Amino acid sequence: MENLNELFEFMALYIWHGLTIFLRVGAIVVLLPGFGAETISTRIKLMIAFCFTAVVAPAIEPTTALFSPFDFPSVVFSETLIGFLLGIGVRFFLISLQTAGTIAAQSTSLSQLLGGAVTEPLAAIGYILTMGAIALAMITGLHVKIAVAIVSSYNIIPIGGEIPGNWVAGWGIKQVTFAFQFAFIISSPFMLVSVLYNLALGAINKAMPQLMVAFVGAPIITFGGLFLLFVTSPYLLSTWLDTLDNFLLNPWENFQ
After folding, report:
1. CB count in 10 Å sphere of residue 223
2. DSSP symbols for the chain
3. CA atoms within 13 A on the CB side of 229
4. pLDDT digits (tens, 9 = 90+) for 76-130
Protein backbone atom coordinates (compact mmCIF):
# COMPACT_ATOMS: atom_id res chain seq x y z
CA MET A 1 0.00 0.00 0.00
CA GLU A 2 2.86 2.41 0.75
CA ASN A 3 4.34 1.77 -2.67
CA LEU A 4 0.92 2.27 -4.24
CA ASN A 5 0.47 5.58 -2.43
CA GLU A 6 3.90 6.71 -3.60
CA LEU A 7 2.95 5.75 -7.14
CA PHE A 8 -0.28 7.75 -6.93
CA GLU A 9 1.57 10.77 -5.56
CA PHE A 10 4.17 10.47 -8.30
CA MET A 11 1.50 10.25 -11.00
CA ALA A 12 -0.48 13.13 -9.54
CA LEU A 13 2.62 15.31 -9.40
CA TYR A 14 3.51 14.73 -13.04
CA ILE A 15 -0.07 15.05 -14.23
CA TRP A 16 -0.23 18.43 -12.47
CA HIS A 17 3.15 19.33 -13.94
CA GLY A 18 2.03 18.41 -17.46
CA LEU A 19 -1.18 20.37 -17.06
CA THR A 20 0.61 23.54 -15.99
CA ILE A 21 3.04 23.21 -18.90
CA PHE A 22 0.14 22.67 -21.28
CA LEU A 23 -1.53 25.89 -20.16
CA ARG A 24 1.44 27.99 -21.22
CA VAL A 25 2.15 25.98 -24.36
CA GLY A 26 -1.48 25.96 -25.51
CA ALA A 27 -1.76 29.73 -25.34
CA ILE A 28 1.43 30.07 -27.39
CA VAL A 29 0.40 27.58 -30.07
CA VAL A 30 -2.89 29.37 -30.74
CA LEU A 31 -1.01 32.53 -31.74
CA LEU A 32 2.01 31.06 -33.53
CA PRO A 33 2.49 31.76 -37.25
CA GLY A 34 1.64 28.65 -39.21
CA PHE A 35 0.72 26.46 -36.25
CA GLY A 36 -2.05 28.79 -35.09
CA ALA A 37 -3.49 29.70 -38.49
CA GLU A 38 -7.26 29.95 -38.70
CA THR A 39 -7.28 27.45 -41.58
CA ILE A 40 -5.89 24.73 -39.27
CA SER A 41 -8.55 22.80 -37.38
CA THR A 42 -8.81 22.94 -33.60
CA ARG A 43 -7.97 19.23 -33.29
CA ILE A 44 -4.70 19.70 -35.13
CA LYS A 45 -3.82 22.69 -32.93
CA LEU A 46 -4.60 20.59 -29.85
CA MET A 47 -2.28 17.83 -31.03
CA ILE A 48 0.45 20.38 -31.75
CA ALA A 49 0.06 21.74 -28.22
CA PHE A 50 0.31 18.21 -26.78
CA CYS A 51 3.48 17.57 -28.81
CA PHE A 52 5.09 20.80 -27.59
CA THR A 53 4.09 19.90 -24.03
CA ALA A 54 5.72 16.47 -24.36
CA VAL A 55 8.93 18.16 -25.53
CA VAL A 56 9.01 20.96 -22.94
CA ALA A 57 7.77 19.15 -19.81
CA PRO A 58 10.86 16.90 -19.29
CA ALA A 59 13.11 19.97 -19.41
CA ILE A 60 11.27 21.69 -16.53
CA GLU A 61 11.72 20.54 -12.94
CA PRO A 62 8.36 19.57 -11.37
CA THR A 63 7.40 21.63 -8.34
CA THR A 64 5.16 20.73 -5.39
CA ALA A 65 4.90 24.30 -4.12
CA LEU A 66 1.68 24.90 -6.09
CA PHE A 67 0.37 21.36 -5.87
CA SER A 68 -3.01 22.32 -4.46
CA PRO A 69 -6.53 22.73 -5.90
CA PHE A 70 -6.73 26.17 -4.28
CA ASP A 71 -3.78 27.34 -6.38
CA PHE A 72 -5.32 26.13 -9.64
CA PRO A 73 -7.19 29.36 -10.63
CA SER A 74 -4.14 31.58 -10.12
CA VAL A 75 -1.90 29.10 -11.97
CA VAL A 76 -4.33 28.93 -14.89
CA PHE A 77 -4.43 32.71 -15.15
CA SER A 78 -0.68 33.31 -14.85
CA GLU A 79 0.41 30.46 -17.14
CA THR A 80 -2.14 31.34 -19.81
CA LEU A 81 -1.14 35.00 -19.67
CA ILE A 82 2.55 34.17 -20.01
CA GLY A 83 1.86 31.92 -22.99
CA PHE A 84 -0.32 34.59 -24.56
CA LEU A 85 2.42 37.20 -24.17
CA LEU A 86 5.06 35.04 -25.82
CA GLY A 87 2.66 34.02 -28.59
CA ILE A 88 1.56 37.58 -29.33
CA GLY A 89 5.22 38.67 -29.35
CA VAL A 90 5.90 36.20 -32.17
CA ARG A 91 2.61 37.08 -33.86
CA PHE A 92 3.64 40.73 -34.05
CA PHE A 93 6.35 39.74 -36.53
CA LEU A 94 3.70 38.37 -38.86
CA ILE A 95 1.54 41.46 -38.33
CA SER A 96 4.50 43.68 -39.21
CA LEU A 97 4.91 41.83 -42.51
CA GLN A 98 1.22 42.20 -43.29
CA THR A 99 1.39 45.92 -42.50
CA ALA A 100 4.51 46.33 -44.62
CA GLY A 101 2.82 44.52 -47.49
CA THR A 102 -0.22 46.79 -47.24
CA ILE A 103 1.97 49.90 -47.30
CA ALA A 104 3.98 48.58 -50.24
CA ALA A 105 0.84 47.57 -52.14
CA GLN A 106 -0.78 50.97 -51.68
CA SER A 107 2.44 52.59 -52.93
CA THR A 108 2.57 50.46 -56.09
CA SER A 109 -1.16 50.15 -56.99
CA LEU A 110 -1.29 46.43 -56.12
CA SER A 111 -3.58 46.71 -53.12
CA GLN A 112 -6.48 44.51 -54.27
CA LEU A 113 -4.93 41.70 -56.32
CA LEU A 114 -5.42 38.30 -54.58
CA GLY A 115 -7.03 40.13 -51.67
CA GLY A 116 -9.57 37.36 -50.96
CA ALA A 117 -7.15 34.42 -50.98
CA VAL A 118 -7.00 34.20 -47.18
CA THR A 119 -9.51 34.37 -44.32
CA GLU A 120 -8.74 38.06 -43.82
CA PRO A 121 -8.27 40.14 -46.98
CA LEU A 122 -4.63 41.04 -47.53
CA ALA A 123 -2.86 43.04 -50.16
CA ALA A 124 -1.02 41.00 -52.78
CA ILE A 125 2.44 41.90 -51.53
CA GLY A 126 1.43 41.27 -47.91
CA TYR A 127 0.04 37.86 -48.83
CA ILE A 128 3.20 36.87 -50.71
CA LEU A 129 5.52 38.09 -47.95
CA THR A 130 3.45 36.43 -45.22
CA MET A 131 3.34 33.03 -46.94
CA GLY A 132 7.03 33.24 -47.78
CA ALA A 133 7.94 34.18 -44.22
CA ILE A 134 5.92 31.30 -42.72
CA ALA A 135 7.46 28.82 -45.15
CA LEU A 136 10.96 30.13 -44.43
CA ALA A 137 10.42 29.98 -40.67
CA MET A 138 9.15 26.40 -40.87
CA ILE A 139 12.05 25.30 -43.04
CA THR A 140 14.61 26.77 -40.66
CA GLY A 141 13.13 25.01 -37.59
CA LEU A 142 10.57 27.33 -36.04
CA HIS A 143 9.26 24.49 -33.86
CA VAL A 144 12.70 23.97 -32.31
CA LYS A 145 13.21 27.68 -31.69
CA ILE A 146 9.77 27.97 -30.08
CA ALA A 147 10.45 24.98 -27.82
CA VAL A 148 13.73 26.52 -26.69
CA ALA A 149 12.02 29.87 -26.07
CA ILE A 150 9.32 28.19 -23.98
CA VAL A 151 11.89 26.33 -21.87
CA SER A 152 13.92 29.50 -21.32
CA SER A 153 10.76 31.38 -20.31
CA TYR A 154 10.59 29.27 -17.13
CA ASN A 155 13.99 30.66 -16.09
CA ILE A 156 12.52 34.17 -16.15
CA ILE A 157 8.97 33.44 -14.98
CA PRO A 158 8.60 30.08 -13.20
CA ILE A 159 5.34 28.18 -12.86
CA GLY A 160 2.87 30.31 -10.95
CA GLY A 161 5.21 33.30 -10.96
CA GLU A 162 3.87 36.79 -10.49
CA ILE A 163 3.77 39.16 -13.45
CA PRO A 164 3.92 42.85 -12.52
CA GLY A 165 1.53 44.95 -14.57
CA ASN A 166 4.09 47.66 -15.29
CA TRP A 167 6.44 45.06 -16.81
CA VAL A 168 3.69 43.73 -19.05
CA ALA A 169 2.77 47.27 -20.15
CA GLY A 170 6.37 48.20 -20.92
CA TRP A 171 6.97 44.98 -22.80
CA GLY A 172 3.76 45.32 -24.81
CA ILE A 173 4.42 48.94 -25.79
CA LYS A 174 7.90 47.97 -26.92
CA GLN A 175 6.60 45.14 -29.12
CA VAL A 176 3.87 47.24 -30.74
CA THR A 177 6.30 50.09 -31.42
CA PHE A 178 8.86 47.74 -32.92
CA ALA A 179 6.25 46.03 -35.12
CA PHE A 180 5.29 49.31 -36.80
CA GLN A 181 8.92 50.44 -37.09
CA PHE A 182 9.86 47.13 -38.66
CA ALA A 183 6.93 47.34 -41.08
CA PHE A 184 8.05 50.81 -42.17
CA ILE A 185 11.64 49.59 -42.70
CA ILE A 186 10.54 46.62 -44.80
CA SER A 187 8.23 48.71 -46.98
CA SER A 188 10.68 51.61 -47.39
CA PRO A 189 12.00 50.50 -50.84
CA PHE A 190 8.47 50.50 -52.25
CA MET A 191 7.67 53.89 -50.74
CA LEU A 192 10.89 55.33 -52.17
CA VAL A 193 10.04 54.03 -55.63
CA SER A 194 6.51 55.46 -55.29
CA VAL A 195 7.85 58.91 -54.40
CA LEU A 196 10.30 58.90 -57.33
CA TYR A 197 7.56 57.67 -59.66
CA ASN A 198 5.14 60.42 -58.66
CA LEU A 199 7.84 63.08 -58.96
CA ALA A 200 8.77 61.85 -62.44
CA LEU A 201 5.12 61.65 -63.45
CA GLY A 202 4.53 65.20 -62.26
CA ALA A 203 7.52 66.48 -64.20
CA ILE A 204 6.38 64.69 -67.37
CA ASN A 205 2.85 66.03 -67.00
CA LYS A 206 4.21 69.55 -66.56
CA ALA A 207 6.40 69.26 -69.66
CA MET A 208 3.78 67.53 -71.82
CA PRO A 209 0.26 68.45 -70.62
CA GLN A 210 -1.35 66.78 -73.62
CA LEU A 211 0.09 63.35 -72.75
CA MET A 212 -2.21 61.01 -70.79
CA VAL A 213 0.33 60.24 -68.08
CA ALA A 214 -2.09 58.00 -66.15
CA PHE A 215 -2.25 55.50 -69.02
CA VAL A 216 1.53 55.51 -69.35
CA GLY A 217 2.37 55.54 -65.68
CA ALA A 218 -0.02 52.87 -64.33
CA PRO A 219 1.65 49.91 -66.11
CA ILE A 220 5.07 51.26 -65.19
CA ILE A 221 4.38 51.47 -61.45
CA THR A 222 2.72 48.05 -61.46
CA PHE A 223 5.65 46.44 -63.25
CA GLY A 224 8.09 48.34 -61.05
CA GLY A 225 6.37 47.11 -57.89
CA LEU A 226 6.41 43.49 -59.05
CA PHE A 227 10.04 43.72 -60.16
CA LEU A 228 11.04 45.36 -56.88
CA LEU A 229 9.25 42.59 -54.96
CA PHE A 230 11.13 39.98 -57.00
CA VAL A 231 14.49 41.63 -56.29
CA THR A 232 14.07 42.59 -52.64
CA SER A 233 11.94 39.76 -51.19
CA PRO A 234 14.91 37.44 -50.45
CA TYR A 235 16.64 40.20 -48.48
CA LEU A 236 13.43 41.30 -46.74
CA LEU A 237 12.55 37.75 -45.66
CA SER A 238 16.09 36.97 -44.49
CA THR A 239 16.09 40.17 -42.43
CA TRP A 240 12.70 39.23 -40.99
CA LEU A 241 13.94 35.75 -40.06
CA ASP A 242 17.10 37.08 -38.39
CA THR A 243 15.04 39.55 -36.38
CA LEU A 244 12.62 36.82 -35.32
CA ASP A 245 15.51 34.58 -34.25
CA ASN A 246 16.98 37.39 -32.15
CA PHE A 247 13.61 37.90 -30.48
CA LEU A 248 13.23 34.21 -29.66
CA LEU A 249 16.69 34.16 -28.07
CA ASN A 250 15.56 36.74 -25.51
CA PRO A 251 11.81 37.41 -25.74
CA TRP A 252 11.52 38.51 -22.12
CA GLU A 253 14.03 41.34 -22.18
CA ASN A 254 11.83 43.73 -20.18
CA PHE A 255 11.04 41.04 -17.63
CA GLN A 256 14.63 40.63 -16.46
Report:
1. 11
2. -HHHHHHHHHHHHHHHHHHHHHHHHHHHHHHSTTTT-TTS-HHHHHHHHHHHHHHHGGGS---STT-SGGGHHHHHHHHHHHHHHHHHHHHHHHHHHHHHHHHHHHHTT-SSTTTTSSSS---HHHHHHHHHHHHHHHHTTHHHHHHHHHHHHHHHS-TT----HHHHHHHHHHHHHHHHHHHHHHHHHHHHHHHHHHHHHHHHHHH-TTS-HHHHHHHHHHHHHHHHHHHHHHHHHHHHHHHHHHHHHSTTGGG-
3. 23
4. 888 888 888 888 988 899 888 888 888 888 877 766 544 444 455 566 787 888 8
pTM as predicted: 0.79
User: Could you tell me the end-to-end alpha-carbon distance of the chain, in angstroms, rounded to an integer?
Assistant: 46
